[in-house]
Amino acid sequence: MTAPEAASPTSAAPAPNWREAWAVYLQPRVLIVLLLGFSSGLPLALSGSTLLVWMREAGVDLGTIGLFALVGTPYTLKFAWAPLVDALHVPIFTRAFGRRRGWLVFSQLLLIGAILLLALTDPARSPLFVALGALLVATMSSTQDIVVDAFRVESLPESEQAAGMASYVAAYRIGMLVSTAGVLFLVSAFEDTGIGRGSAWMWGYVAMAALVLIGTVTALAATEPEQSVRAEAKTHDEAAFSRVMHAAIGAFSEFLVRKHALTVLAFVVLFKLTDAFSGTMTAPFVIDLGFTRNDYAAIVKGVGLAATLIGGFAGGYVARRYSLAASLWIGGVLQALSNLVFAWLAFVGTNQWALAAAISAENFTGAIGTVIFVAYLSALCQNPLHTATQYALLTALAAVGRTYLSSGAGYVAEATGWPLFFVISVIVAVPSLILLAWLQRRGHFEALGPVKV
Question: Which keywords annotate this record (predicted)?
Fold first, then answer.
């Protein structure tokens, strides 16, 4: 493998002045992207790790819990309806708010309804209805992601891309923390008032549905990206079906004719797999060790949040300071090695300091890896006529690891035990690093041209 090297002056921007670097985070467009990042990160855990804690407390077995990763299928298939988002208008919404903002408000209202529906289910009595509710949440969430990703790529100028990506990823992970630790705290608080466990979980999910309104208010306060306005004007006279076909065929064909396209797609699928494989079972692992729900929530909410914020901004600095290939090496190796901390925790047992160290390492390295990965995906999307479709295709492929390749993680954990399971999750990262070395040797990253990091 080719080791990461520091960027040359032509491959990355020089180290930024710290005062200027921090000032850019206060730009209105960056703040809009930050709040939309929170809205995107909020629902993911509601059909994922938080739901798994609810199911584990309800007595659902580990094998079934692992299979519930399959409800994330919409995240892997969202490219199929992304051309609709690129090409079609939402009645009333598009006319009132614009091409991107109209879809944003529309998808967020549907997401609120899906979360409320999931809140009414019971994992112990009707796991099938829970799966259907979670599937609806994932579908509406992935639709929101399609629009937010396109809005972010199109609205930020090159000088604000690094700050925008760091803010987006940090806020995304904060949204995930709110919908994990925040929900666990709320459920415990509701139980302390005498409400039954099932009702406490229901009201916890109702509160998360209300928080989606943060993204709705942000969408209403934002302005339509200029690139989107120009693209809309360019295709205004086309029929709806024609616009959809041009968005779909243009996006896929433009990408697939690139050099090493299939290897790039395989790399996109595998890069975050090590995170997904271990992350699927983190919450059940902590509960099985003997930690209480509040122990887990307090640590995730406290040191986990701090580690996420620091990791997000550290990832932005790495992406700006080093070449894209070197940044991917740093992120890929760090996020894989962090799983060894959980293997160590399995031997330590119920030690809160050890749990804090493991959660901090996971959040810090995961945030670094995600910021750099987002930078890479953004660099692959360069045509405003179908930004949403191309980015949705890439993020859908990235979700394949989380949804399908990691769905058997529960069975692996049962068969091997927790320490060996987390060692295996490190080994899972090796194929992506091999592909990274292969692409780097063939000049793939240099061929992308100036990368907006």
Answer: Membrane, Transmembrane, Transmembrane helix, Transport
